Amino acid sequence: MWAAAPWSKKTKWWVSGIGIGIPLIGIIVTFFLATASPKKQINAAKDAAIKAEIQNISQQANRYCVTVGKCPLSIAELQQQGYINKTATIDPSIGYVQLNEGNDCTISAILSTKQIYSMKCYPTNSL
After folding, report:
1. Is 39 contained in some domain?
2. For residue 116, is it within any domain?
3. Which of 12, 54, 58, 109 has the fewest CB atoms within 10 Å distance of its CB?
4. Taking Cα atoms as reference points, which of 108, 86, 111 lies closest to residue 97?
5. Tens digit of pLDDT for each residue in 30-69?
6. E strand or H helix that includes residue 110
7. What are 98's strand-pairing partners?
8. Is the dihedral of CA 34, 35, 39, 43 positive or negative?
9. b/e map 32-57, b = 16+ CB within 10 Å
10. Domain that residue 66 falls in
């Protein structure tokens, strides 16, 4: 028979600590890597930027509606009339539709979550 190794208490602690600690650290690191996905954070930031841009366009379209009495034909018209900075680049995923012969309009985009985010604008005389 083999004789038991004369390990000290310190050595036994290190062996059991390594045997339990390393797998535990691996589990914790895997959890944090799975929950902190950079792709999700990037998509969330892009979606937030698109939402903010849609809100800005909607506000400017409402201003245009109040001034002119009907909604603009396009986002380009808002830029040409000076309601939106002419050098501003509008995200190509944002769509604009004038409805009801200019009485209202909708600005919308499909987000990374495949949800449609949209806002309507109305001239004050149609409320």
Report:
1. no
2. yes
3. 12
4. 108
5. 877 767 677 888 888 999 999 999 999 999 999 998 898 8
6. strand 104-110
7. 105
8. positive
9. eeeeeeeeeeeeeeebeebeebbeeb
10. 47-126
